[in-house]
Design brief:
With about 290 residues, the protein is mainly alpha-helical. It has one domain. It has eleven helices and no strands. Helix 3 runs antiparallel to helix 4. The protein is globular and about 60 Å long. The protein starts with a helix and ends in a 12-residue tail after the last helix.
């Protein structure tokens, strides 16, 4: 058995345990508010994930959680009331599941094993030293859990119901936007994965193939579209306006944190990234012909 196979078996066992924590917490909670019940179970799973990250001395234990937990929500909603599902519920479940499994697959094929830890977490370890575990829990584990949960709150209106929702224009549009985002990520990540393994590509240079030649962050744009679509689905199924705050938070996080951090790093690791910044827009392609 290869080292990656051993590490893969270990991460699977870890996530089985994390899932059991969530399921047991959810089943034994007796609360009138279903959203709060989900939130507490989600927090318990996040806390378990944090403990494993401390044990493994690798915060990338959490990396798969981002794409896994929304799918687990769908599974629980299905168990709770699949007999009340209609086209709206099944369509949204497909969209979210497609996003979840595509992103999880992309994470796994790029994960080399426990020898890998996200470069941002490595920087945090160096920057905060003995105080790192506070950052590990609050910024690496808890904040992403909360913003994903907030972004999912609109879907409670769709799935926490005793009757199917009519398929309306808003739900169709929301699923369309989300699926467009997933496809954008799919094409962008496939190109990225292929180019990283392309032995003929000059090392230390920026990837400009496919979508990466049109915009600098097609994967982040796709992710933003996915969450905006979910917010639209929620509102169109009767959710309150505040459920859109999650997708707004996602957009702000990507624009003001994730993208600047990534591009600052690439400026120091890619010899041509300065010219790439000037020639290729960040999120929206330039219209018209180049001079």
């Amino acid at each position: 058995m290869s080292q990656k196979s051993k590490d893969s078996l270990e991460i699977i066992i870890i996530y089985v345990f994390i899932t059991l924590v969530g399921v047991i917490t959810y089943q034994y909670l007796s609360l009138p508010n279903e959203m709060l019940r989900f939130l507490i179970a989600d927090f318990g799973m996040t806390l378990s994930c944090f403990v494993f990250s401390v044990w493994k001395k690798n915060s990338s234990v959490y990396d798969a959680y981002w794409s896994y937990i929304p799918f687990l929500f769908i599974v629980q909603w299905f168990v709770n009331g699949y007999m009340f599902w209609g086209i709206s519920e099944f369509l949204t479940a497909f969209t979210l599941s497609f996003w979840s499994w595509r992103l999880s697959h992309n994470w796994y094929r790029s994960w080399s094993g426990w020898d890998h830890e996200d470069w941002r977490y490595v920087n945090f370890r160096k920057q905060f030293g003995k105080h790192f575990q506070w950052i590990n829990f609050s910024a690496i584990h808890l904040y992403p859990t909360l913003i994903v949960f907030l972004s999912m709150t609109g879907l409670f209106s769709l799935y926490d119901s005793s009757m199917p929702h009519d398929l309306n224009a808003g739900i169709i549009l929301g699923n369309t936007v989300s699926l467009m985002g997933v496809l954008l990520e799919l094409f962008a990540d496939n190109t990225l994965y292929a180019e990283r393994k392309n032995v003929s590509r000059i090392k230390g240079t920026t990837i400009r193939s496919g979508l990466w030649g049109q915009i600098r962050n097609p994967n982040y744009l796709g992710e933003m579209l996915f969450w905006v679509g979910l917010a639209l689905i929620g509102v169109s199924s009767g959710a309150a306006w505040w459920t859109t705050l999650g997708s707004i938070g996602m957009i702000l996080m990507f624009i003001f944190a994730s993208i600047p951090m990534k591009e600052k790093r690439l400026l120091s690791t890619r010899s041509d990234f300065q010219s790439y910044l000037k020639e290729v827009p960040s999120l929206l392609p330039k219209l018209g012909k180049k001079n």
